[in-house]
Amino acid sequence: MVAASSPSGTREITGPKNATPSTCRTGVPTSVPTGSMPAWWEEITASDICRVSPDAEVLDGKWDVTPAIHIHTELHRRRPDVRVVVHNHPYYATVLAALGVLPEFLHQTGSMFDGDLAFVDEYTGEVATADLGADLADRIGDKSVVLLANHGVIVTGPSVEEATYRAATIDRQCRLMYDVLVSGRDHTLVAPSLRRSMKASLLERGTDFFWNGAVRALLRDHPEVVDP
User: Fold this and answer.
1) CATH number reported for the structural domain that contains residue 86 in this entry
2) Positions of E strands within the chain
3) Range of the structural domain that residue 204 is part of
């Protein structure tokens, strides 16, 4: 498994780096970026990536990993379809998580989450052990975009590119939902009969387009991110 942060997430998230990493299963042990290190996300480079085992043991790298790695290892253990797990606390997703609200299908782009959204409605504290990670994985079930009450969001995907696209998009959809709620006005939704085809189109055509653009922007603005 490899843990790595997304191109959009590495530079836009402000906060200490010992927030939860993102993970990617590689077939060999697990790689994870950052852990309990005295640095912020803005400072991450390729040299900060670590390899960890499926049991959260650091195999290679200069840092330890956060105890929250168990969120990732237990999801990977239970979900063979999940190659990538992204866990973070983007502002608008966290606002909705505190409100107990899932984003509705207000815009066609939100169709990429059709059938994939869930809400874990009980905050049980830091997920710092394998048992707690297993319990959370069981609550998540087969969903791929999950808001965690009073916490943040988990996004899973079959590839780094798709998981990055979905992770960046969910917070935009949460912001749209928040703005609609604040307006206090009635709103319309994308019809269920249209979401399935739109979802397939977005993931098929939009994933690489978003990923390639995000990587270009990251390397243009922060070329040091690939420093060894």
Assistant:
1) 3.40.225.10
2) 23-25, 30-33, 49-52, 58-60, 84-88, 117-120, 145-148, 152-157
3) 7-221
Domain for residue 53, yes or no? Answer: yes
Percent of the chain scoring above 70 in pLDDT: 85
Closest listed residue to residue 103, CA positions, set 153, 141, 164, 139: 153
Q: Within a domain: residue 77? A: yes
Q: Is 101 left (phi over 0), alpha (psi -120 to 50) or beta?
A: beta
Domain count, the chain: 1
Whether pTM > 0.85 for this model: the answer is yes
As a whole number of angstroms, the distance between CA 45 and CA 75 comes to 26
- pLDDT digits over 21-44, tens only? 678 876 544 555 544 556 677 788
pLDDT in tens, 74-87: 999 999 999 999 99
Is residue 72 one of the residues assigned to a domain?
yes
Cα–Cα distance measured from residue 30 to residue 62, given in angstroms and rounded to the nearest whole number: 15
